[in-house]
Amino acid sequence: MTRRGRPKKVQPEHLPVLREIVIGKPLATLTEVRDAFISKTGIVLYKSTLSKALREAGVTRHKGVFDSPEAREGEAEPHDHETEHGARYGYQARHRQQAPEQRYPSCLTDAEWTLVSDIFDGDGHRGLPPSYSRRQLVDACCYVVRSGCSWRMLPTDFPPWQNVYRTFRRWSEQGKFERMHDRLRAQWRAREGRDAMPSAAVLDAQSTRHSPQGGTSGYDAGKKVKGRKRHVLVDTLGLILAVSVTAASVQDRDGAHPVMANGIEKYAGIATVFVDTGYAGRCAQTIHQQHGIAVEVVRHPANANVGRWCAPDQDDLFTRQPDAKGFMVLPKRWVVERTHAWIEKARRLVMHHDRRTEVSEAWVWLAAGRQLLSRLTNPA
To answer: Which of 18, 32, 255, 286 is 20 to 30 A from 261 via CA?
Structure first.
């Protein structure tokens, strides 16, 4: 006598689809696997039903940490600053060189000024000619952001600090530093063989201290930092697409929406954004619903809360192993972490010294644009 009842939602022909999903996303949660299965097959099912189907497919989830460092003895040693091709990273002789036209290392060279001169010289104001050249004013702003000094401590080689400050505020309100960076980013992407319109982005936030100057500030209980938080959206090369500065007390999931809205407004071609676990859950769903882009949550393989999916014929779908100290470069996630390090090369951005958050954002655009100028004019 055959048993009658409701047929199974997940048939044997659907099991390869499940295996394909977990192989592509070994660190995905059960909810993310279910959403991916629904989008591929159109079959809506509960988590319990999905768990039974995964067991039928032979897929299990392993939780725990990696092996101890003693078990990994004998593996390859971590790379130092010198690669197998002999390339050395860090400060070199070319970083200490200074062109004859530069008063200070932060000043622009003739080649760098040629790339952006029309942005600052193209005001077209009527009346008396300016008392100081636009290039001197830009050099003064670059000196402040690189050295981290206060406005009143500008060297006498530059125009008076009151003039420089008023010009910086006017340019920041006009968005000239952001426009400069957008142009240079497009040139660098073309040099790297990428399209001008990025299709993928990486989102992250960084909490930094705030000086007693005043203005918006808060306390980040997770990082134990009192100050402000920079929400940065970058492309896969680590170049900034959008930036937003808020109080450090603002959660990552709350501060993600303004910076995502700004990024999508400027670059409508973004189809995927990579985030960490701080944006998982409702924040990722909201971003997907509002902007129609896929949100990929990149988790650490040793995440004991989620674990990683493993098939019977494949011990570990995530084959990367950490180094002797347990460190691992996460795909797509290390890009934005490197961008944070690039930003803090400018000493003005190590700590927030401005009352207004929009001024802090303008410093980020200027510092990132100054770095791109150096890259584009460097023949190496």
So the answer is: 32
